[in-house]
Each structure stands twice: as structure tokens, then as C-alpha cells.
Design goal:
CATH topology of the largest domain: Fumarate Reductase Iron-sulfur Protein, Chain B, domain 2
Shape: globular
Helix content: 25-40%
Largest sheet: 5 strands, mixed
Number of domains: 2
Mean pLDDT: 91
Amino acid sequence: MGENPNMDTSQAEEIVKTVTYNVLRYDPDKDSKPRMQRFQVPVPKGRTVLEGLIYIKENLDGSLTWRSSCRMGVCGSCGMFINGLPRLACQTQILDLNADEIQIKPLPNYDILKDLVPDLKPLLEKHKYIHPNLVRREGKEIDGLTGEFFQTPKELENYIQFTFCIKCGLCLAACPTVATDANYLGPQALAQTFRYNTDTRDEGNQFRFDLIDTADGTTKCHFAGACSDVCPKGVDPAFAIQLLKRDMLLHKLHIKRKEKGVPILGKVTDGKRMKGVPDAPEKTV
């Protein structure tokens, strides 16, 4: 494609400053231990830490490795330890850091797979452990759904804040308890326990309480609040854990017990789709 003759070349990105990226490098196949490597990165207005890493990979060192996907703070892939705090690289503006040197390491409290890539397997295993799905006593209510579960806007408000978790892992990286005890379930899994237990469509309260009422569950939370400070979505897992502790106590005292979830209301139609609505894709799982 040729140049646009009407383009004003004066509108090209203006470099505001040049910063030093001090990046942790580690290749388990080659390195005996991690090392730091420095790069000079030009910074126009609006450049994020992630875009600085992309600049390094495209222009300085193609072997630099990290995770990223959406670049919009939605996927949670680019969690890193940036200037001493767990952050999403795509949401962190270089100029907002107000520093001439940016230190970037993989998230703490995780093993390093390579360079800036943490092993998030513990996060995902703990998330899976609490059964992050609607649990019903009658499995057929989920597997062979014949209608919808009715839920009021007010009932949705009780837990919707905690549905915004994108599993970026920043909360576990900031948690001082996780730093000293890898078996602690951690803020992400416990916050999601509260999310599903509060959902009126769910009937898994007692089931999940039994899973987390252990030495590695809610009792290990010291309410440091670091998890909520770094959460990029405002989920506030520290608050969720305190609400979960309250619900567990009230449940044990038989003061507050959710015995049964809301029923299925209404019926699916004869199965004929409205005109112009395509068929759903086949199940992948």
C-alpha cells in the first residue's frame, strides 16, 4: 500500500522519553538461575508496559517471553511484577509510573516457566477445587435444562461484583499468606466460593463449606487486603472472604441456611428458532 499523500507526517508518534527496562530473564533449559537484562525503550504518550515489551521483542531481542492476549485488561494474561507491584502490563502506562527505570519480573508466589511467564497451575487448580459452577441436587436440572432459573436484579446485585474475576493471578501474587504457605486456597478461590454460594440458583453451599472449612481455608486469611489493592477489576476478594466467614458461621449456627436454590420457571418453546437466529455451535466439551 502506498503512502497517503494527505497524511500529515508531523502527527507521527512523538517520543517523550526513553526508559530502561530491567527485565528478569530465565530459560530453565539454559540458565542455572534467573538474571536481569536491561533494554532501552522509547516512550511516546500512551505506550503501555506491554507495548514496551513488544517493542523489545520486535526490535531488540526476539527471545523475550511473556503471556498476553487481548491487550485490553480483559483476559488477565499479562500479569507481571512491575516496579514492585503485581499489575497487568496492558493496563499500566509507562509514563504513569513516573520512573526512568522499570523493573519487570514474573508474578511472585508462582514458579517461573520462562522469563516473565509464571506457572499458574496452582491458581487454576484451586479455582477448580471449589467447583466454580452451579451445583444442583438434581443434576438433570443442569444437564437437561427445560427452562430458566428465575433471579431478580436484587439477587444478582448480591454477588455480581465477584463475577468480574478474570483469573489473572495478581491477588495470589500479592497475598502474604500465599507467600508463606502454598497450600492456602487463596483469595481467588475463596472469593469465587462466596460468589457461587450467594447465587440463588446454586445449591452447593454445604458442599463448598466442607471444602474450605479446613486449616488451609478461610481461617488463614489475615485480612491484609493486598489482594484487593492489586485487583484490576475491583472484585475485592478480601471483602468476599470476610462475607464468606460470616456466612459459614451463620450456617453452622443454623441462623442462615440456603436449603434449596430457586426452581426452574417457564418452559422452553417447541424448539423452533426465531427466523434469522442461527443454530448454536456444537458442544466442544
